[in-house]
């Protein structure tokens, strides 16, 4: 099939279903809740929804541990509800991409249960199961690999000397993509949903499908438990590209769908072309993490608040590098944050300048290049949690492992709490703040996780919709401007970053025959001066009142931003 590449002009929106909208009062967001908010999403202007996992799951990792790919998690609704979501979304011009988890299953999936129950079964070959090694009379895992959740990447199978590989939670055993029968199972799953009308997939943890088949110890430095965090053993390995070519030929080429891979933070833009180039790529776009932690917050338990400062130059260099290498060769998605990251307003913005900084971040993202994705809540300036107890983080397996590891390292609960409030992915998973009703209008019951209390201070969709100068109204207008044919012509021009070494301002220009389109954004909470030697023809967006421009120099107030034609 000749794909139409419709995603190039789309504005995406990421929905974490558990915390978006509850329809039945059980405290958990669900598919009927999403349906009830489709008019909101249409009016906002987004037309591609990436919905995080909705499959049946014991929810050890909030749905990324799938126990049945052909069933909907009962907490979220039914398959009929999902079909209705597709119908209702398509009727509003909104396409749906769902999260497809292909690196691992739940340990409660029938495949894994059969693999453990019958060592001679076909399903045994669906997973990486290896004998442990005995050292000084003690049975140890097959190697020293450390997973992403701060533990060994291996878990012993009770009553045996066998271990299974899991680079995430121990309840999420990795599947063996080297097994062609396993691959066919996933192709069948993908066809099932594409035939139903799904418009594409966000392919979770795609970078990890290939593994170092020697399973040798890593020579990286080891931690106090003798474990080495060496992602090269299970990330972006060459064998996965053969798997993806087969996936494209057997499935993706036969549908007008988008496939977006999550490839993490160990990928260069040059390597990204192996995934998604027009010439030889197998999928359409790849998400990377290069601009997700540019304030030093990752692993920052030993840092003070004053040390968490946005690396504006680093951000610009990362954006420029991806553009320089991939423009004209591959499509590129953009986002500030997702369900696995802290809130962008707390990362790169400012609570003291919530309105201005949220608008600046939206402007930089929407007019940069590629397909932008907003994370649910970005459009109203949602921010990190206001939790006061480690117990508030306990529903997430990554948090639980982090707390145990940090306590073992000697950190106090106070230090760990401060760290999680800054860095935990729970920050992105608090309930969406719809209004000032109890629980921010998310649920009439008890929410599965605490709501951020600032919804009572106006950080909610309804209050903002009633304020013409609010973040949400700015976001809606900005998305509308992005689709303006004149803006589109300007955005088709060559992109250049201005004053790339300026430590405070993100500024770039698209230059085409139609003219020049500028974005200028102060990324600091104080005034800065920025030179501008062009004659302004039009100001499409501005998050303050009058502009302060004198003698070819802008005096930019905290997080002041412009979208200009010159």
Notes on the protein architecture:
This protein has 566 residues and is α/β, with parallel strands linked by helices. 27% of the residues lie in helices and 17% in strands. The chain contains 15 helices and 23 strands. The chain has helices at 31-36, 38-44, 79-91, 110-117, 180-196, 239-250, 269-276, 312-326, 344-347, 354-366, 397-408, 413-423, 461-465, 471-482, 485-491, and strands spanning 12-15, 48-51, 55-56, 68-72, 95-101, 129-131, 133-135, 138-140, 154-156, 162-165, 200-204, 258-262, 285-287, 333-335, 371-375, 494-497, 505-512, 515-522, 528-531, 538-542, 549-550, 553-556, 561-565. The protein has an eight-stranded parallel beta sheet with strand order 13-12-11-5-2-1-15-14. β7 (133-135) and β8 form a beta hairpin. α7 (269-276) crosses α8 and α10 (354-366) runs parallel beside α14 (471-482). The longest helix has 17 residues, at 180-196. The radius of gyration is 24 Å and the shape is globular.
